[in-house]
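[09:14] KT: can someone run the structure on this one? pasting the chain below
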Amino acid sequence: MPLTMLSRYLHPDPRVRRELVDLLYTALPQVMAISVTSVVGAVALAVIDGDPGYAVIAALILITASARIASLLRYKSRAAQLSDADVVRWERIYGAGACAFSLALGALSYRTLHLGDAPGAWLAFGLSMSFCVGMVSRAAIRPWVILTAAATLLMPTVVAGLLRPELAYNVGAVMLIFFWLTLREASRHLSAAFVERLEARHRLALQATHDFLTGLPNRAAFLQSLATIGGNFAIIAIDLDGFKPVNDRHGHNAGDDLLRQVAARLTDCVGAGGIAARFGGDEFMLLKPVAAGADGRTEALELARRAVFELSLPYRLSDLPVRIGASAGVLVADGALATGATAQLLERVDRALYAAKRAGGATVWSDADDEPAYSAAV
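[09:31] RB: done, structure tokens below
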């Protein structure tokens, strides 16, 4: 299935999507069980009947089953390193493997009905139903995979049944169509309930580590990142200048909108390699790896200056231009210093921030200096 067609079935949240695909690839025991029984059944028919068609189909079942098992094992070994785009690709691989195996198994049913081999048809139908039962256990995870594979599995049997002159076979073929429609409705309901539970769990996890207003990591998430960061890094404490008058004059809704705009600007400033967090009220923290020595200090001060400058630019609140400012305290440290010293690091960067505030605002003050590193009028 092309990505443009598959995209309508993808969950918009990459974290939920990854968990769903991870669950798909936990099907190794079921896949191995149906693979072994299907290969044994097809080989048995080929040996007993001596039909070359059975032999070809048995070979196809063996090839597709082996490929599915190999993909399951490969995904398990690489899952932790996969990007979001890789996860989407592996979902397509799982779907393609399930459909290929379904087609081979469906061909076995078609062959038995075409030859009028009643015992063989009974065996092939049993294998098909066993496969369907195994797929139903995945119906709540990715319905499109299950429904596509089921259609691929049942279609050869339906066609062969309709081509038979006996009415019983014709009726049975029609009943298989209704079976697929029932599976389709059941899959949709199961999937909706299952995905809703996953989304609720992820929302709760997000609320525990992120600020509900701005969407930025909260204090707990910032402290966890600080405790695990290695190498040289910069901590920048930022406090808004003039936020309270704006909040009092325009109302709390406007103040909330302003904080969200501040969060967006800080996220852009810190970039993909850093973290912008809201500590509470109008106080924010930036954490970013930097180079060692003087170059790292230069990077940290440049980031702080950029943040103060960006936050001083006009905002629009209900089509009204509003301006505030910001003060920043800067601390450059290394991983060894951070070990067991989180509180001391925060105390030092807070002192630098307070010095910047006392200097009149719109100021960057480094923990290592006795004078402002940057100052500008709001």
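[09:33] KT: thanks! The CA atoms of residues 29 and 69 lie 10 Å apart.
[09:34] RB: yep, looked fine to me
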